[in-house]
Structure formats: structure tokens, C-alpha cells
Amino acid sequence: MVALGKACFMIRSELVAAIARENPGLRMEEVEKVVSTFFDEIAGRLASGGRVELRGFGAFSTRAREARKGRNPRTGEAVSVPGKRVPYFKPGKEMRARLNAD
What we know:
Number of domains: 1
Largest sheet: 3 strands, antiparallel
Distance between the termini: 22 Å
Number of strands: 7
């Protein structure tokens, strides 16, 4: 896990290594395939307008952002920003409880 100030974050290779450590019967290539499939399936479902719910963890979905007027930070010129869909994650009840345990 990489520390940046007070925040810690995990990169994909660290996730793969952690799963491999917990499952010594699997080869690193197998773990990498599982992780890739997991992320590809979530991204694919979201891209098709779906939702992915992982009980106890949370739900991935998308939200629409309306088109708007923005400003170019260099020139101050007004620019049109098109509408788009953005990913959204809502943590589950168990995840919220774990994050707020004192």
C-alpha cells in the first residue's frame, strides 16, 4: 500500500499480490485473470447502463451529468461541456459500519 500524506491507497498490482498471498494454490497469472475479469465485468455492465451490487460492500452505478457551460482556465473563454455519464459508488451498510467503527 502506498502512503501519500495521511492517505493510503492500493494499486492494482498490490491488490493482485494480496489476493495471491491469501490464495497460495493459485498462480499469479490466475489471480491476475480473476482481477481483470472482475473489473472488466463491472465496467461492461456500467457501460451498458446496468448496475453492479455486491452485498455487504456496495453498489456501482452511473449518474447522468447535464451539459453545461464551463470556462477555459487559461483564457477565461466560455466553452460548452457536453453531458455525460459518470460512475458512482454507494457503499453498503456493512461497509459504512466498518469505516465508522471506533
